[in-house]
Amino acid sequence: MVGNKKIFDIVIEGGTLLTMVDGKEPMHGARVIISGDKIEEVSVSHNSPIPETNEIITAENAIILPGLINTHGHSPMVLFRGMSDDLPLKKWLYEHIFPAEAKYINPDTVYWASLLACLEMIASGTTTFIDGYFFANEIVKAINKAGIRALVAQGVIDFPAPGVPDPNKNLDVALVFLERWIHFSDLITPGIFCHSPLTCSAKTLLRAYDISSRFDFPLQTHLSETHDEAKEIEKKTGLRPVFYLDDLGLLNSNLIAAHAIYLDEEEIDLLAKRCVKIAHCPESNMKLGSGLAAVEKMLEKGVTVGLGTDGCASNNNLDLFTEMDTASKLAKVANLDPTIIDARTVLKMATIGGAKVIGLENRIGTIETGKKADIIIVDANTPHMTPMYNPYSQLVYSATGGDVRDVIINGRIIYRDRRFTTLDSAEIMDEVKRLCRQIDI
Amino acid sequence: MVGNKKIFDIVIEGGTLLTMVDGKEPMHGARVIISGDKIEEVSVSHNSPIPETNEIITAENAIILPGLINTHGHSPMVLFRGMSDDLPLKKWLYEHIFPAEAKYINPDTVYWASLLACLEMIASGTTTFIDGYFFANEIVKAINKAGIRALVAQGVIDFPAPGVPDPNKNLDVALVFLERWIHFSDLITPGIFCHSPLTCSAKTLLRAYDISSRFDFPLQTHLSETHDEAKEIEKKTGLRPVFYLDDLGLLNSNLIAAHAIYLDEEEIDLLAKRCVKIAHCPESNMKLGSGLAAVEKMLEKGVTVGLGTDGCASNNNLDLFTEMDTASKLAKVANLDPTIIDARTVLKMATIGGAKVIGLENRIGTIETGKKADIIIVDANTPHMTPMYNPYSQLVYSATGGDVRDVIINGRIIYRDRRFTTLDSAEIMDEVKRLCRQIDI
Questions:
Q1: 3-class SS of residue A325
Q2: Contact with chain B for residue A339, Cβ under 8 A
Q3: Domains and CATH numbers, chain B
Q4: Is ipTM strictly over 0.95?
Q5: With contacts defined as CB-CB under 8 Å, which chain B residues touch A401?
Q6: Global pTM value
Q7: What is the SS3 assignment for A435?
Q8: pLDDT tens profile A321-339
Q9: Is B156 helix (H, G, I), strand (E, B) or coil?
Q10: Any A CB within 8 A of B382 CB
């Protein structure tokens, strides 16, 4: 404040703005004013003078939108990107991924791999992500350095796991993790990620639920990712997976279930009724040959759905732009209906939908006065983004993550003109390459 | 030649080389020597001195591979990119695309839009493409300016079409087109594109076949893209579409059929027997809700298959990297089998497979001594390409077209460090934007 005049922190000037607020149309020649960590004002500039500000970002020939939200992933798995592709699922898991995790996942690899994942997510416009893995303390350290927003969960499974050799202690480790980071940063929410209702006993699931509820944090799990998994739970418990979880009392708005492929109508109805959040991961579901999630049906029935890339061993990138494209196109071909999951719907899924999944819809997911300034700017001044009739279509069907030019998280410029401001990308890539040279599975 | 020492034109030095020759493994620390329009030598450098050359392209931390080949498209349709998405197929076609074509397709729009398509294809690593549209003379002029390799076909349909108001003259126009460009350039093959066996009569198809055969040029057609189309042909002729074309005597190695979705086993067997070439367009087939082409079955039965983006109104980009990713993942989920259409197979489809479709497998599609120098270099020094265990996986599942750094076509550097050497991208984008401002459908 100089005299009576407020000096703002950042003004984004020009370009096409998608606020992602329901009913709001794209704004051309937009102006977004940021003060501290918050959005102060959203308007059309009409060539009025730019208010006094510490920083101006011009967005002519660009699209301004809320940062994307990745609702399911295991960021340290970038370490195994492309290591073992195109294999039968069981061989992939038991002869490649599990042995590699047992041998190479340690605090050092998790830390550096998480930094690499942050680089990749930032550069492709993701400003918030939901993560679940082992050595989660190291993930928190990495994302804190990066300045990205996240729900980071300690993985829980009833088998010996990296950093948790005794499965009886899996929830003790998780509890210590929660207590350590609960008040650490406005950007980081710690959580618990139960691997699946098959690999976690009822006792483990219930205790995880109790701890999560105590802190009022979301609980994550994989759900009905494969046909075999769903069938096995039914065989073991006499109930379809969603009904089994309901029987345990686990279904509520704090549960985030990833994949959700093998569900019948009644299960989807129950998920809707209990306000369970779904992380839809179409590319991973395709690449592993898992199956088709009936995302259009979930939306129709009012289930909250976000988009997720899953870990890099089954995708193999963290690009939510290509994920949006695939989510829309896959639903269309699965239903032989080109009107399903249109561009705006899938962009909502990747922004405000994701915010609802993580429970932060009052703080992020749209560009509105008073919300946190999590904003990305996508370059539209390229051949593949020309001409532009419909910015939603352009982002979903024409763009890739590589078109992201600037990223602001919590009012801080994290990526400017395609350069990282918080992380040393060369150092991180070199370190990950060095660590990966030992990997031999 | 200075004294006895030959001076080469281009040496590509370092990096990982995928020759795409059957049985050849990736070469690390590669050297590719180019002389004139041809590949002179392919080797591993072993730190030996770089031979004398006019140009050195260093490819450390990059992947060198044959230029990609797009086997199906309508390049001027970039004009309608994102204009009318997510609509029912008939509404999209009859209320949007056809009226827009009737009103806005003219020599000027076709010329500039084709230049824009060339920019996009070059920047995403496509060095050869197969095209079919109206005002094809203008497409030839554009691609000649760009320096890209192509089979460009004049569109033929038994309805009034842009530039061909009288359908009785559609093949006269095509014949004049063929005769005009037959000897024009080593890079350009003119051809005929019959819209479909439903929109072209038997008489039109037969005459198109006769003309194409006379010149020994490939003939293109859409084939069984929708269920309705296949059913209607069956109703009209009493034969499934492939058998109908066989009955006309059209099936041979000079026929390129795009989409090929609604085929039964016998039709696929017959396509294999007759050596018909297939352009597989998974993203377009998904976006329009058309259906799933059984590409794994076609390959198994020995059908030659290339990859195509289709026109930009139904994709909405010309990026063959994301198309490869989708082709592989879609086949996996459709068959619930993650081993199907592995990364190397789909990369073959987009390189040597495409070369076979166009009938140029002896000249392009692999990196080998004596072949034309159509080579691209993909930057692997980025977060989403790190680490790299398997370059095939990396290109298919992690890369996008935006990772292409350099493009050489016919021994000429067309794109260097992401800058176009033959085209003025700003001028072309501006001109297309100007033309599109009038478009109102």
A1: helix
A2: yes
A3: 8-66+371-419 (2.30.40.10), 68-358 (3.20.20.140)
A4: yes
A5: 384, 400
A6: 0.98
A7: helix
A8: 999 999 999 999 999 999 9
A9: strand
A10: yes
